[in-house]
Specification:
The protein has helices at residues 88-91, 118-125, 133-138; strands spanning 2-8, 17-23, 36-41, 50-54, 62-71, 74-78, 94-95, 99-108, 112-113. It is mostly beta strands and 149 residues long. The protein has a single domain (2-116), classed as Umud Fragment, subunit A (Ribbon). It starts with a strand and ends in an 11-residue tail after the last helix.
Length: 149
């Protein structure tokens, strides 16, 4: 999924936040073409986070994917849409210096939090709360894909 910067701080601004317009189907059902997201630049990334990064083979292209985990010196980043394979399965682990930040919130068309705290994610994926997948999805918790897909 490609993204276009619409404004905000980025690395060069006073604030570490920016707004990005989403293009493409690779993060469906989490994000759709035309969604507007809030990104926090330079923050710590953890597995399960939705991130914004520069494409390793086309660094002028900004991309949004889900961080599945560390591989060597980079992040293994996958599409949420399992029909799209233009992700780390195609270009490998993405070096740390190309990962720009974490997508915190979908602003448009309807606000949805995409960056739950680790304790909330654990609570919604284990025990009795794991039986409420719609609540988990509303709070930004998605079941992780296998990196081997």
């Amino acid at each position: 999924m490609s993204a276009e910067r619409e404004g905000g701080g980025g690395h060069g601004g006073a604030l570490p936040f920016g707004v990005v317009d989403v293009a493409g189907p690779s993060m469906v059902p989490t994000l759709y073409e035309g969604d507007l997201v809030l990104v926090r630049y330079g923050c710590r990334i953890r597995p399960g986070a939705v991130v914004l990064f520069r494409h390793p083979l086309r660094q002028d292209l900004l991309v949004v994917k889900r961080a599945e985990g560390r591989r060597g010196r980079g992040w293994w980043l996958l599409s949420d849409n399992h029909f799209v394979d233009s992700d780390s399965r195609e270009y490998g682990a993405v070096p740390d210096d190309l990962v720009l930040g974490r997508v915190l919130l979908r602003l448009r068309p309807r606000p949805v939090w995409l960056a739950p705290a680790p304790w909330l994610e654990r609570a919604l994926t284990t025990g009795p709360l794991s039986r409420l997948p719609r609540l988990a999805a509303r709070l930004g918790v998605r079941r992780r894909l296998s990196p081997e897909l």
